[in-house]
Amino acid sequence: MSTDSRLNDSVDPEETLGDLLTYAELLKTPQLARLYIYVLRNGPVAIETVKEDLDIPHSTAYKYVGELEEMGILTRHEDQTPTQIAVDPIRLTLETEHGEVVATPVLVAAIGQQLDSEDIRVFVDRQGIPKLAAALHYTLRVMNGELTQRTATNKLDVHPVEGMTVITALQEIIEAASGYDPYLEPAK
């Protein structure tokens, strides 16, 4: 083992892997992602309000609240009546052989949006979550004036109509996320 592959003393491998697993769970569970974003956007908020606004059953709401709490990103404020919940905005940076990847709440919002947007759902069904993350990256670049939608679609390597449709849907998600994602930065 070379010294280059050893962890820096300031790195906490447990926390780092915990963050990765948290993001993985949010990315593979649209309902959980949707609840996380709702609480991030509106919190602190009562669980009853979450249930009503998202139209989810009592047991499901408490299950997902419990999961977010176990992940360490949700806090219950039981000193208030009714109990209020709040989440922390999370940010994950991965250094890979393909470059650095930064995942912020806007990606989680795109995953959760599968439940409300047929355009996002169909794109994920056909292309997968990694391609959705790439589409989000290119959409940010389109919004920054660095790329046209056509160029972004070509970079995604999807049918032009499918690419432009998902980019349009993601632009709405990004615009909304600018109000609650403190890490949302223009693409470089």
Protein model, in words:
The structure is a single chain. By secondary structure, this protein is mainly alpha-helical. Helix content is 58%, strand content 11%. The chain contains 9 helices and 5 strands, in the order ααβααββββααααα. The protein has helices at residues 13-28, 30-42, 47-54, 58-70, 105-112, 118-127, 129-143, 149-156, 160-177; strands spanning 45-46, 74-77, 84-87, 92-96, 99-103. The strands form 2 sheets. Strands 1-3-2 form a 3-stranded antiparallel sheet. A two-stranded antiparallel sheet has the order 4-5. A hairpin with a 6-residue loop joins strand 2 and strand 3. Helix 2 (30-42) crosses helix 4 (58-70) and helix 7 packs across helix 9 (160-177). Mean pLDDT is 88; it is low at 1-7.
